[in-house]
Amino acid sequence: MVHDTADLGRGRFASALQGYLGWLTLMAVFASTLAFGGNHPPAWLALALVVAIAVGVQYAVDGVAPPRADRQRAILLPAATYFAVLFWGWLQTLPGWAPEAWHHPAWAAVAAPGVIAIDPTEAQHHLVRLACYAGVFWIAARAATDRVRCRHMVIAIALFSTGLAIFGLGAFITGSNPIIDPTGLDGGPLTASFVNRNSYATYAAFGLLANIAAWIMVMEQASGADQTRSTRRLIRDLLNSFVARGWWFACGALTCGLAIVIGQSRGGTIAAVLGVVVFFVAYQRARGAVGRVALLGVILGAVFIAATSFGGLAARFFATTQESGRFIIFPVIVEASFDRFWLGHGLGGLHHGLRAYIPPAVANVEWDLAHNSYLSNLFELGAVGAAAFYAALAAVVWRIAQATRGRRRDHVFASLAVACVAVGAAHSLVDFSLEMPGTAALFAVLLGIGWRQSFSSHKRSRRQSH
Fold first, then answer.
1. CA-CA distance, 27 to 86, in Å (whole number)?
2. Which letter does DSSP use for residue 463 in this model?
3. Is a pLDDT exceeding 80 seen at residue 225?
């Protein structure tokens, strides 16, 4: 009995500490977002430092209260694959071990030891960021063990995203953005705290989905487990929940949606619409009253946004701009990738590695990013490295997707995570939003929550009696 009491006390202490670590990490992710979307070295290095400390403490907590065996087995393969990719990225930067034929051709022009990567320093920066995202994922997953805490974290994401959207809309209307340009904007697009509208659109789409999920959670609480009550009573309960708290998140979803459309990101808007569709497809209770009410609210909000703010975005869809140059550069990146198909040019090496391949038609633009994350990873990691990277992500996403059909409760978290994956995957075809540290870190948080909530909590592991 004494041993059981001690075990229970340690478990409670570990759970509380996991909660503190989860909130600390989430606050750090929010803070990095305010610093140009985390796209400056001081911002993402500070985030990486906080996450490194949190991971160290989490490791100690896991020694006291380890995750259940089934969860450890489930994460083993994707984690091993992901860290194998990081190991390969590190090997790309090391001199002296690889045959000279493997060295990047650019090293032949300088009197220095050759390596596989064209820019080892940039590769090391990228390695730190990728390791940071893995840490964020694991801390979020461990913090999300408590379902109430999990709900509160999603609500915090919804509220922060709404606040950021309000800031972005205010800066756009007034023409003054103290984060991006303290001296005053000259009529630029809506970017909130990000460096461009496309990167912000993905973040706002995550906020839109988090608000919808939070709204559904409020309505689920109001409807309760009794789905047999009369329609009139159920509608009354749902309306009461809307008046009490639901309107926060309904308005938050509308605000994030307005920010996306007014920002006029074409790829971001399409990705956001796809994300909403995937969310309601994944959320199987959409066939019930709660899902129908939420879906009706989203449709009405979309009609309002289209009627009031769609003109500028529609004009951009039919405009011919310099951005069409990315479709000229895509096949060039593929050609350059085949020159080092297995080895890659090194993490972060696209900026310098692509220069020798750029055709005159788009040479007036500095191509430091590929505007397609899939091609960028192929170019930098090589075919095997890129395939392993996406295989690790796919294994996690597959587990979460299975939960949208298998879980009896709380599958709103899995639906949210899968919908965010759809947003990121779609927008990454034409942009680099998930290469922004603030957005990638929030994506890792949402994946961590969805992954942890993909497991049933009914089966408990047996405690040792000694």
1. 26
2. P
3. no
Q: Are 197 and 189 in contact (CB under 8 A)?
A: yes
Alpha helix positions (H), 92-174? 120-143, 147-174
Q: Which tokens go with 210?
A: 């988090």
The pLDDT confidence band at residue 462, using thresholds 50, 70 and 90, is very low
Please say if the pLDDT value at position 235 is more than 70: no
Q: Which of 19-33, 219-233, 353-367 has the lowest mean pLDDT?
A: 219-233
CA distances from 120 to 133, 152, 304, 344, 352 (A): 20, 41, 50, 13, 11
Residue written as token pair 């009794």: 226
DSSP SS3 for 318:
coil
Distance CA 308, CA 127 (A): 44
Spatial distance between the Cα atoms of 316 and 226, rounded to a whole number of angstroms: 48
pLDDT digits (tens, 9 = 90+) for 339-364: 999 999 999 999 999 998 999 888 88
Of 330, 374, 369, which Cα lies nearest the Cα of 349? 369
Q: Domain map of the chain by residue range?
A: 2-452
- Which residues, other chains included, contact 231 with Cβ-Cβ below 8 Å and sequence gap of 6+? 289
pLDDT at 71 over 90: no
Judge contact between 250 and 217, C-beta under 8 A. Answer: no
- When the pLDDT of each residue in the chain is averaged and rounded to a whole number, the result is 87
CB 126 within 8 A of CB 379: no
Calculate mean pLDDT across residues 49-68: 91
In one-letter notation, the amino acid at residue 442 is L
With left for phi above 0 and alpha for psi between -120 and 50, is residue 367 left, alpha or beta? Answer: beta
User: Per the structure block, which two tokens stand in for 384?
Assistant: 């095997």
| 41 contacts: CB under 8 Å, gap ≥ 6 | 125
The total of other beta-carbon atoms located within 10 Å of residue 64's CB is: 12
* Contact status, residue 293 vs residue 301, Cβ threshold 8 Å: no
For 95-108, give the secondary structure using H, E and C. Answer: CCCCCHHHCCHHHH
Q: Is the pLDDT of residue 65 over 50?
A: yes
**Is the sign of the CA dihedral 183, 184, 190, 196 positive or negative?**
negative
pTM of the model: 0.92
Helices (H) and strands (E) in the chain, counts: 15, 0
| Cβ contact 149:16 at 8 Å | no
Is the CB of residue 205 less than 8 Å from the CB of residue 268? Answer: yes
Beta bridge partners of 181: 177
Collapsed DSSP state (helix, strand, coil) of residue 354: coil
Per-residue confidence (pLDDT) for residue 461, from 0 to 100: 40
Q: Above 80 in pLDDT, residue 290?
A: no
Q: Read off the pLDDT of residues 25-38 as tens digits, 9 standing for 90 and up.
A: 999 999 999 999 99
